[in-house]
Hints:
With 91 residues, this protein is mainly β. It has strands at residues 2-8, 16-19, 30-34, 40-44, 53-55, 69-72.
Amino acid sequence: MGQTTVGTSAAKNATRIVLTSASGIADHDPIGIVLDDGTVHWTFSDGDPFATIVTLGSYLPGAATAGNVVYLPSISSETFTTATGLTATGL
């Protein structure tokens, strides 16, 4: 799985995040942001990044400090499916 880090600290409820690198991220790619409480918030890129700024598909439920890991499954061609996106034929 690819990864990068948070480049600039993001506050709770942020809808954009600055990464140290947005290379390889495209519209609707899944991203997992490690929050300060240690949980990983899974969302997606809502549009192509602008430089290293990524617009999130959902707001951050907690703060993410600069240096926190950001997981990028699409960098290594992994897939990410939410529970609501799963069908019986997909099992």
